[in-house]
Design brief:
The protein is an all-alpha fold and 45 residues long. It has one domain. Helix content is 29%, strand content 0%. The protein has helices spanning 14-17, 32-40.
Amino acid sequence: MEQLHCEFVFKPTNELKKLKTTEWYFDTDGDIDDCFTNIGNLRSL
């Protein structure tokens, strides 16, 4: 797979509107597994 584009189309709940964290794979030093580890370590709201 060369590219994957996902688009979620829904009306966000108030809980989802409060989320402020953005993670991009390209901001991660290392491979995709490192990116997933970083996401898994994010603090839950």
